[in-house]
Design a protein that fits this description.
By secondary structure, this protein is an alpha+beta fold. It has helices spanning about 25-35, 65-75, 120-130; strands spanning about 10-15, 20-25, 45, 55-60, 85-95, 115-120. The protein has one domain. The protein has three helices and six strands, in the order ββαββαββα. Strand 1 (about 10-15) and strand 2 (about 20-25) form a beta hairpin. The longest helix is centred in the middle third of the chain and has 13 residues, at about 65-75. The protein is globular, with a radius of gyration of 13 Å. The protein starts with 9 loop residues before the first strand and ends with a helix. GO terms for molecular function: ribosomal large subunit binding; tRNA binding. One of its GO terms (biological process) is rescue of stalled ribosome.
């Protein structure tokens, strides 16, 4: 069995039943997801100002508000704010993310994001797991 540090980000199925949302579960998976797996136009999500997973809506360049909420809930759930209500989650096009020189894996900077507020629901998250 592979070390979980090197496994690929985990897939979740959005509410529409066809859109895949990927979740990085550690700093190496976050780097892989954000800088190697993302394509132009795909949306990226991260809990605002707290440690957590990088989340990416794959192959859907015009996701509905419901799919954006699904991704934001995943980002909130897989963060230090898992048990909080109305978690702030940043949303930005993945290709607008920057990795500073010599930054640790998983560290990114960005400007121009939109911020969503969501309350993660554990039952919903578990049902989305593929």
């Amino acid at each position: 069995m592979k070390n979980s540090k090197t496994q690929k980000p985990e897939p979740y199925l959005a509410s529409d039943g066809k859109t895949i949302i990927l979740v990085g579960k550690n700093n190496l998976q976050n780097d892989e997801l954000t800088f190697k797996m993302s394509k132009k136009g795909e949306l990226w999500f991260h809990a605002k100002d707290i440690p957590g997973s990088h989340v990416l809506i794959k192959d859907n360049l015009n996701p509905s508000d419901e799919i954006k909420t699904d991704a934001a809930e995943l980002a909130a759930y897989f963060s230090k704010a898992r048990l909080s209500n109305l978690v702030q989650v940043d949303m930005i096009e993945a290709k607008k993310l920057n990795k500073p020189n010599k930054a640790k894996p998983g560290f990114v900077t960005y400007r121009g994001q939109k911020t969503l507020r969501v309350t993660p629901n554990e039952a919903k998250i578990k049902a989305m797991k593929m």
